[in-house]
Amino acid sequence: MKSDNAKIISKLYFELLPTQVLLLALAALSGIISTVFASNVIGPIAVSAMGVYNPVYMFLLAISTVILGGAQILCGKFMGRHESKKMQAVFSLDILLILIFSVVITVLMFFAGRFDLATFLASDATVRHEFNSYIMGLSAGVIPFLVSQQLFAFLSLEQQNKRLMSASIVFLVATVIFTYLFIVVLPLGTLGLGLAGAAGNWAFLIALLPYFFRKDSLYQIHFRHVDFSFTREMLKTGLPGALLRIYQAVRGLLVNTMILRFVGSDGLSAYGAAGSLLEVCWALPFGMEIVCRMLFSVSIGEEDKRSLTDIMKTFLLKGLPITCIMAAVVIALAVPITIIFYHDPSQQVYQLTVLAFRILPIAFPFSTICLCFNSFAESFGKHALAHVVTVLDGILCVSVLGFLLIRPFGMTGFYVAYFVSSIICALVFLIYSLIKNKRIPKNMEELMAIPKEFGADVKDRLELSVQNAEDVVHVAETVQTFCKDHGVDAKEAYYAALCMEEMAGNIVDHGFTKDKKKHKTDIRVTYKEDGLILRIKDDCKPFDPAERKNLIDPDDPCKNIGIRMVYKIADDIDYQNMLGLNVLTMKISLA
Questions:
Q1: Domains and CATH numbers, the chain
Q2: What is the pLDDT of residues 423-472, one digit of tens each?
Q3: pLDDT of 290-322, one tens digit each?
Q4: Could you please report the per-residue DSSP string of 282-343?
């Protein structure tokens, strides 16, 4: 009975992915709405102003990422270790820190636009004038934008897909309505463009916020639970991912300067228009990165080496091909997509935009590989590797290659620099693996360079699955044999098998029969010198045995007697509904 772990990982991966992609795509879709109105109602100069804002946007995402990324990794590890109080403390700290940062940025953006303090972002006076109006409007939406990013990410961990979808629809509808109101009905120009984005962000936050004050929410906003002792570890853990955004912000400044100098405003307008739509496409690679990071952190907390490799296999064999297809579709539809923004094929801005859609998507597959391997490096604490890749991907490769190629080849050379950079960064992980293994990797474990000392040795762990009552009996026998082979006392081996048989039987009798879906299970027994760790993971409806052990039916005194027996045998029992899965861990100490 081979374990269903790989199938569970795959199912969970694609259950989590849509919500993460949706979160990232929402901002991008909002950008497309703004860009379409800007290019068709206000003019190309407004699109250039939005392009100038991009480095600022990347900076905001960078800070959001360092806080959210660190919080997610720590919460995932605490979740894997079944330390719910620490998990709640980290979440509360996350929200408080992002609120403080949001208030500071709101003030800075408003005054920068009001008093023309951002001269270093745009040398062109006309573009800068429009940019100042734009960020003054946007400043009103910084707080809801950054707080919503955090709430949406944590809400997805609780599989609240209907609530997430409802909030997303509210956000998009509000953005369209307010953009039309402020741009067409009240012709406020780029100021209205910014105000519309801010109003959409507030509508999004209002739709998300109520859930986190409910008693049944896993993550609740209670600032009295804040534990500032986690601040340093949170920021350190999330820093590599955030540095990528910071480097991209700096790169954006350099890129804008290069394009204006060697190509002109048409080049910047084309790059801005292409970037606004490709931002939606980038939601898929970045969504995969976030999902991988969440799953990696939980598996690291559980010290589960096999799950780490199953996560990466799921990404490479199932996730990556989707990215390749997406890139091919964008390239094939380059001309129709360009017409959304610019209509005259004789204009240089039209031609450069078509060129962008034909070249830039080539980077998607390689960048996705880089992002997901880097998420593993961050989660595992390989900070040096993560920093090296972040520097190369975030600023060095594109800036240097772009500068070398834009002068002789114009925007074509600059676009080529992007996908060449992504190839270089992806190769870094292969080179790292070669150095660590001192040979070509023979399996996924070696490709990921997972230390051999991490987690239990293969001989000290048993992995099984159950699908029916016959499997339950076989699992009990296999567990008992495994224990005896490791020198466990016959009585303790019998108790371990009995516990596993009872709990696995509960899944078959109750979990499998609650609906008509086909369910999967992953049973793992780990031998350690001080005891046995029995873990059962399934994708059935939530079922906490602790709620049943004290329920005694007067008409049937034997009801739930098996669960009560397990609680007497095991030294420690912990249940969590983790990422939509039931995870029951039982520990039996050895004499």
A1: 5-437 (no CATH), 458-589 (3.30.565.10)
A2: 998 999 999 999 998 999 989 999 999 888 887 777 888 888 888 878 88
A3: 888 878 887 887 788 888 999 999 999 999 999
A4: HHHHHHHHHHHHHHHHHHHHTT-HHHHHHHHHHIIIIIHHHHHHHHHHHHHTHHHHHHTT--
